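Exercise 7. Predict the joint structure of the components listed below.
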Amino acid sequence: RETVCIFGTGDFGRALGHKMIQSGYPVVYGSRSTQISNLIPKDAEVLGHAEAAQKAAVIIIAIQRQYYNFLTKLADVLHGKVLVDISNNLKLNQYPESNAEYLAQLLPGSKVVKGFNTVSAWALQSGTLDASRQVFICGDDVEAKQMVMNIVRGLGLTPVDKGSLLAAQEIENYPLQLFPMWKFPIFLSLGLGLFFFFYCLVLDVIYTYIYENNDFSFFIAISIPNQVFPAMALTLFGLVYLPGIFAAIIQLYRGTKYRRFPDWLDKWMLCRKQLGLIALAFAALHAVFTLVTPLRAFTSWSTSTKIISQALNNQTEPLDHTNAWLNDSYLALGMLGFFVFVLLGISSLPSVSNSVNWREFRFIQSKLGYLALILCTAHVLIHGGKWFLNPEAYKWYLPNIYMLALVVPCIVLVVKCVLILPCVDKPLTKIRQGWE
Amino acid sequence: RETVCIFGTGDFGRALGHKMIQSGYPVVYGSRSTQISNLIPKDAEVLGHAEAAQKAAVIIIAIQRQYYNFLTKLADVLHGKVLVDISNNLKLNQYPESNAEYLAQLLPGSKVVKGFNTVSAWALQSGTLDASRQVFICGDDVEAKQMVMNIVRGLGLTPVDKGSLLAAQEIENYPLQLFPMWKFPIFLSLGLGLFFFFYCLVLDVIYTYIYENNDFSFFIAISIPNQVFPAMALTLFGLVYLPGIFAAIIQLYRGTKYRRFPDWLDKWMLCRKQLGLIALAFAALHAVFTLVTPLRAFTSWSTSTKIISQALNNQTEPLDHTNAWLNDSYLALGMLGFFVFVLLGISSLPSVSNSVNWREFRFIQSKLGYLALILCTAHVLIHGGKWFLNPEAYKWYLPNIYMLALVVPCIVLVVKCVLILPCVDKPLTKIRQGWE
Amino acid sequence: RETVCIFGTGDFGRALGHKMIQSGYPVVYGSRSTQISNLIPKDAEVLGHAEAAQKAAVIIIAIQRQYYNFLTKLADVLHGKVLVDISNNLKLNQYPESNAEYLAQLLPGSKVVKGFNTVSAWALQSGTLDASRQVFICGDDVEAKQMVMNIVRGLGLTPVDKGSLLAAQEIENYPLQLFPMWKFPIFLSLGLGLFFFFYCLVLDVIYTYIYENNDFSFFIAISIPNQVFPAMALTLFGLVYLPGIFAAIIQLYRGTKYRRFPDWLDKWMLCRKQLGLIALAFAALHAVFTLVTPLRAFTSWSTSTKIISQALNNQTEPLDHTNAWLNDSYLALGMLGFFVFVLLGISSLPSVSNSVNWREFRFIQSKLGYLALILCTAHVLIHGGKWFLNPEAYKWYLPNIYMLALVVPCIVLVVKCVLILPCVDKPLTKIRQGWE
Ligand SMILES: Cc1cc2nc3c(=O)[nH]c(=O)nc-3n(C[C@H](O)[C@H](O)[C@H](O)COP(=O)(O)OP(=O)(O)OC[C@H]3O[C@@H](n4cnc5c(N)ncnc54)[C@H](O)[C@@H]3O)c2cc1C
Ligand SMILES: Cc1cc2nc3c(=O)[nH]c(=O)nc-3n(C[C@H](O)[C@H](O)[C@H](O)COP(=O)(O)OP(=O)(O)OC[C@H]3O[C@@H](n4cnc5c(N)ncnc54)[C@H](O)[C@@H]3O)c2cc1C
Ligand SMILES: Cc1cc2nc3c(=O)[nH]c(=O)nc-3n(C[C@H](O)[C@H](O)[C@H](O)COP(=O)(O)OP(=O)(O)OC[C@H]3O[C@@H](n4cnc5c(N)ncnc54)[C@H](O)[C@@H]3O)c2cc1C
Ligand SMILES: NC(=O)c1ccc[n+]([C@@H]2O[C@H](COP(=O)([O-])OP(=O)(O)OC[C@H]3O[C@@H](n4cnc5c(N)ncnc54)[C@H](OP(=O)(O)O)[C@@H]3O)[C@@H](O)[C@H]2O)c1
Ligand SMILES: NC(=O)c1ccc[n+]([C@@H]2O[C@H](COP(=O)([O-])OP(=O)(O)OC[C@H]3O[C@@H](n4cnc5c(N)ncnc54)[C@H](OP(=O)(O)O)[C@@H]3O)[C@@H](O)[C@H]2O)c1
Ligand SMILES: NC(=O)c1ccc[n+]([C@@H]2O[C@H](COP(=O)([O-])OP(=O)(O)OC[C@H]3O[C@@H](n4cnc5c(N)ncnc54)[C@H](OP(=O)(O)O)[C@@H]3O)[C@@H](O)[C@H]2O)c1
Ligand SMILES: CCCCCCCCCCCCCCCC(=O)OC[C@H](COP(=O)(O)O)OC(=O)CCCCCCCCCCCCCCC
Ligand SMILES: CCCCCCCCCCCCCCCC(=O)OC[C@H](COP(=O)(O)O)OC(=O)CCCCCCCCCCCCCCC
Ligand SMILES: CCCCCCCCCCCCCCCC(=O)OC[C@H](COP(=O)(O)O)OC(=O)CCCCCCCCCCCCCCC
Ligand code: HEM
Ligand code: HEM
Ligand code: HEM
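Solution:
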């Protein structure tokens, strides 16, 4: 394999050098000081920048951007060489142009390729590369890019060609992000969750404590979470399908689909996937918290108390058929709803969504999604139905938490019903097909 | 970035133009009417076809196939240009040749590239591209293809090179499909499910109503589904491994593996994955429906009735050890079987199956698959065992549903046992290694 | 499509030929005997090696490596041709150089491309290609590689370019492996599992049998597994994070990160993913085995016995609030721990880990991982807490199994607490940034 030159004997330079030597590439370092420290890989040569550059066709610039200007002095030596810019910044869009474009401006005679910046020095060294096996590459010179991609493959990594050097900005921003799309949904659910939690605490623990003088503070561990989680799940699930409703109304009102939606709606529509997955997470928690109920000390205590009191009164209740029907059907609806919900989740795994086409994906996400929403809403309606008109359900005149949770999904389902009426659907379809 | 020309100011043309302008490509439209409507992206120019074509090297033909013939008049202008055919048809294999090949025949001097047809206009505009991030590209001219792939990358999408223009037919058919491989398995399970459902209804609800005068209609919500789902799961699971058995017998009988299987067997073998996943879905439903049992009003009613009647009779039963053994072991077998079943499911996620090799995949699918089948069959055998010889189990002389469910898996397991006998396995192995 | 030549009419040669003819490639075989057997695809020609080679630009060598030397005689005919080496060996690293490199040495005038060896003959024929849809290709000549990749695409498979011919060794070893990374973790957990199982058997079944004369042998089906599984899960989970602790201590002690870790630590760190997934599998089994408890015959027997005895004594116990708190909180902690655990599992699916960056991946694996470990450890501590100081818990002076299971995670958590103290963390961070 051909010699590779690395400028800079810092953390990343050394790690990359180690890996290259392991993979059979002769490595020569270009450094300000040519003293060989014992940190530098044993089989590597360390020379001055100019000499090192002459020994290789590909030069990896493992130096921070702010020191790049010293390279202009080497412009002659670097002429025609492939320079690999591996630098990252500390902030998103820190500089007006990307580091790679800046390097290309400094050295117009060299072929600049961006790459390797998404790989961590530690991952390279320790071999635990799971999240950085893909190396994004971009550059204007096709052959230079090909050379760098071969090196990437030689190191056992997967090169991903991102096109021309214009993509460098994006590639540089990539490793600085921490779940950018998840931020809003997570904060929203945190806020909503806290609200629901205290609402429940007041109604279930504090109210009982004040009026019935019962200390049910241990409800905080399971009972209250198991009211908050499903309420969150249902509300967020509704919020996934609400923006689609707004979009349809706006399109109908405007009579065209070619004007941009208001900004908030745009953003909202783009984080529906995240909202949906968070809703799924809460639904899964609800399912597990519910299934665990029979194991609770509280459950066995209340069951045995009830049975014993019946036994002591010599009394056996007949089976209440209506109740059995209602109870079984809300459970069945909940489970079926959850099942379809999980299918939505599975289909949003990147590898699954990549292997279905747009029509299939929309069938799952839109048709099955509404089916799941209907099932879940029905689950809660049947579970809570008999209490809606019962004043006892309204402690301190406040509605129960599941009534709050029903608001958004019910709105969504009702408006959606209107939208699929033929007289509304027809013009909408035309608008969506691009008609004026 | 270089100017791109789009022929056709229809829905797709506009959506693509919007996106291109956003991504920094100058866009010029070629249209029959050069009047600028306000639907067309603001920064785009609209010209006649010939003038527009001259301004760009890449021309995207956003026009339906049936109007292509007008392009022959522009043959001169289009000579040497890269034409991107993005058209879809309304039906699978609507025309004898693909649209792209038709275009290439019309304009032999131009370089035709197929692409973008799997992307939806709406997805492009709204940015929700999950299932259409991959843009399949094919074409005979490598450089033309490279140019189009760079544009694809420039728009933030992932080009997937599908080879020469011969692949156009396949690419054009792709977006028209709606789960083609799932159709048969789904109809099969619908049919089977309905049969099992009514069978159960008759035995559990109608029979009880007639002979015991008990109204157990609420069993429709949970009890009956929880007999139908596992029966479906087990039968379909058996049907996954049955074709392999047939294949082996046919190969043994013919003494060669080089003659095609009968058509029905071929099709059956190709939809085993789908059958297996549907079986898994039913098994998961069975698991959840089972775990929810203790929460049912009916369960708490029957438990308390039983306990109270024992208490009133002053009687406590001793623990029946045989029953405890049987009960615990069928539950344990069911859970272990389900566990291995889920592993099969996980390993058939595209990203997981891509990262194991053929030997590993077959180990999971074939070895672990049979293990799961054995565990699940044993689960049902032990659960139902004591009833097989009990005439009471046969209401109206009909076998119980789980007895029906056992038929297919038991056949599979018995024949498989024969097939792995050394005296049968040896010739079979030779046949499979290509011997005559 | 262009004619392809295949040398060798064996199993693989025929299967590939069939597939190629199906996909529209004219096929000509080069064979020692030009008699057409009826195993050979109908539309293929069979010629002598030299004649066959002249008819095509690409020649697929479907012959075992040991017979390659006869090809030297054909060196003239094969000059300039693309030879595709598809051979596999029987053992890992059987020969000093890879088969493809050996072929290239034999025929220096030909362009050798390695490929197709990961595809199974049977998969090709039967169309069930799930785990061998990716065809790894390598070779020194870019154009030759491109030609082979086009054929791969033409067959409906996905070529994956692995770079120069140096990658052939790796590609040849790939299909011989059977979960190499999983071996150690699986043996470890088998050993540990057996130990825990017999330990539990002794304490729960044999001890009870000897001292209380109770036959609880049926505990082997559910109760004992449900002590072994969670203990395994917790111990393995601890073992996932233990090597990181060792690594930190070693780095602190050495003052540098550039010296290799001892070999055992290196290996251990590289199989943490597998250890973690096995831990997850055991945790899932624990969850399901726990949730199924209320369905056990033993549970309903012991519940009703307890209730009846209370009823017969006319006695109802009040709710023990402390117990309710402890019970609910250990359950809640277990469920939350399991939930985060499953998130770790989901994020290690290849397609998910590929779509997050290194920072995000480490956030999930390291931060959320420790969170899950804390939750699970707290779950067990609270569940078992009251027994630690109770001599009754120590049958035969042996600690209970969950006490053993707590050892590793508790050590990990305590040492980690020390490591994140600012006075330790600061120098560690510097070392990790590459400082001396
Ligand atoms: C568990 C879970 C996982 C999810 N995963 C994903 C995911 O991976 N990816 C993802 O994107 N979403 C995901 N979601 C979110 C959600 O399911 C989808 O966004 C879904 O497509 C929304 O359906 P819809 O019918 O409301 O929206 P849309 O189909 O977007 O419809 C909304 C509105 O957009 C307009 N519109 C729709 N189609 C067209 C068209 N062809 N032309 C013009 N205008 C049109 C209409 O006005 C329509 O009313 C997930 C949700 C959940 C619960
Ligand atoms: C949950 C679940 C998920 C599944 N996912 C998938 C999936 O992703 N992909 C998939 O393909 N299937 C999947 N399946 C289906 C099934 O597991 C596999 O098809 C499995 O390989 C069948 O095993 P088998 O031993 O019966 O079949 P095979 O190994 O195909 O054997 C069947 C017959 O084919 C012949 N045969 C087998 N090997 C050879 C050989 N080397 N040479 C010549 N002849 C041979 C023999 O006659 C053999 O008897 C799934 C099933 C389930 C339950
Ligand atoms: C369900 C499950 C799934 C898992 N899936 C995966 C998976 O897919 N891939 C995977 O790799 N692991 C996986 N794991 C294992 C585990 O979660 C990870 O390895 C995790 O990163 C370990 O975290 P840590 O903080 O101990 O390790 P590390 O972050 O590796 O830290 C260990 C030590 O390495 C050194 N170190 C860490 N970072 C640096 C640095 N930047 N520079 C120098 N030295 C450094 C330090 O000395 C540190 O103490 C999985 C675990 C579980 C339970
Ligand atoms: N560390 C990572 O995990 C990682 C990952 C991806 C990308 N990167 C990028 O890699 C680059 C280097 O990072 P690093 O962690 O290796 O930094 P570092 O350890 O600080 O090393 C920087 C090296 O640059 C050279 N240098 C410093 N000042 C210079 C100057 N004035 N003139 C010329 N050379 C100078 C020095 O090498 P000599 O002493 O040999 O001259 C020094 O060792 C950064 O741009 C970073 O964004 C790092
Ligand atoms: N819509 C999608 O989601 C989508 C997705 C993928 C592929 N496609 C494909 O894109 C193509 C166009 O679809 P579309 O939805 O944009 O259709 P459209 O809205 O009907 O637009 C078609 C355009 O073609 C031009 N045109 C029509 N008749 C013509 C004629 N006789 N001669 C010359 N030009 C004519 C018109 O443009 P001028 O008035 O400017 O001349 C018209 O706007 C189709 O082949 C379709 O399969 C569409
Ligand atoms: N079978 C698979 O699933 C599979 C998968 C991947 C790779 N491979 C590789 O493909 C290669 C062939 O495997 P196979 O299963 O096809 O083996 P096979 O059935 O034994 O066929 C080998 C063929 O090589 C030819 N041959 C044998 N001895 C020869 C000699 N002394 N001189 C010249 N030609 C000779 C023969 O063809 P003629 O009689 O026509 O001359 C024979 O049919 C092996 O390297 C194997 O590793 C096989
Ligand atoms: C109530 C709990 C519900 C659990 C549901 C499990 C259902 C499994 C059904 C899979 C349906 C897949 C739809 C695929 C769409 C498609 O066409 O997808 C097409 C793709 C691509 O296929 P091809 O490329 O082969 O054509 O197929 C797949 O990706 C298969 C995905 C399999 C997923 C299995 C996941 C298992 C995870 C199990 C979790 C179980 C938890 C159990 C808890 C109790
Ligand atoms: C009874 C419920 C059972 C739940 C089972 C969870 C088991 C997790 C065990 C994972 C086994 C993976 C086999 C991989 C084969 C392989 O080598 O695969 C190899 C691949 C590739 O690895 P490399 O590329 O790193 O080598 O590894 C993987 O893909 C890892 C897959 C991880 C999957 C985790 C999925 C979590 C989903 C959890 C659902 C939980 C539901 C719980 C309900 C109660
Ligand atoms: C207690 C049981 C817990 C079950 C937990 C289900 C949680 C689902 C939450 C998903 C979280 C995903 C984190 C993704 C990180 C990320 O940014 O990931 C980013 C990626 C890529 O996204 P983009 O490329 O679109 O940006 O997103 C994903 O991959 C989404 C993964 C979805 C996974 C859904 C899996 C469903 C399987 C369900 C099993 C349910 C079992 C139920 C048993 C009772
Ligand atoms: C496995 C599937 C499910 C089961 C077994 C289940 C079971 C239950 C049960 C038993 C209750 C009553 C709880 C109580 O009395 O306190 C309940 C309530 C509820 N469920 Fe579910 N459910 C499931 C899925 C879902 C899903 C997917 C959603 C929504 C997305 C949901 C939303 C709700 C809501 C909002 C409540 C009312 C909470 C309250 O008591 O205030 N459930 N569910
Ligand atoms: C979590 C795992 C599982 C558990 C806890 C479980 C539990 C049970 C229980 C309690 C029953 C008795 C139901 C009744 O009395 O009505 C049952 C029956 C049955 N199970 Fe399972 N099971 C599991 C997994 C499976 C799997 C994976 C299959 C098959 C693929 C399966 C197939 C069956 C069948 C066919 C029956 C008979 C249904 C009937 O009553 O007619 N089970 N299971
Ligand atoms: C769905 C989540 C979980 C639930 C419902 C759950 C429930 C339980 C229950 C009820 C017990 C007491 C069993 C008994 O008394 O015999 C227990 C014990 C235990 N759990 Fe969990 N758990 C969960 C998750 C986990 C996880 C994720 C781990 C560890 C990784 C874990 C580790 C343990 C251990 C070590 C024990 C002690 C086993 C023994 O009795 O010796 N659990 N769990």
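Discussion. Chain B touches chain A through 70 residues (CB under 8 Å).
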